[in-house]
Amino acid sequence: MTAADALFARRSLTVMIGSVLSVGGAVVAATFFLQPWRSCEGEDTSVGCAMLPGDAAVMQVAGLVFLTGVIVVAAGLLAPRPERR
């Protein structure tokens, strides 16, 4: 494996890891925003129910994971590209 191949593999792996983090964080944050498991009196939909402190903490962590994933993807895309011969 040449140095260019190793750099390309590292760059691709960085973009893949960042993408997984971004998608995972976005899915968890959206799920906890919609709260499909919650029901409360006087509300037709679960979105109208108040969020519990634990749910808010999970949503904040998911948001941070999403932002971390976006930063990792950006770092992978902005990394130096291997030289072409």
From TrEMBL:
<protein>
    <recommendedName>
        <fullName>Disulfide bond formation protein B</fullName>
    </recommendedName>
</protein>
<keyword id="KW-1133">Transmembrane helix</keyword>
<feature type="transmembrane region" description="Helical">
    <location>
        <begin position="57"/>
        <end position="79"/>
    </location>
</feature>
<feature type="transmembrane region" description="Helical">
    <location>
        <begin position="12"/>
        <end position="37"/>
    </location>
</feature>
<keyword id="KW-0812">Transmembrane</keyword>
<keyword id="KW-0472">Membrane</keyword>
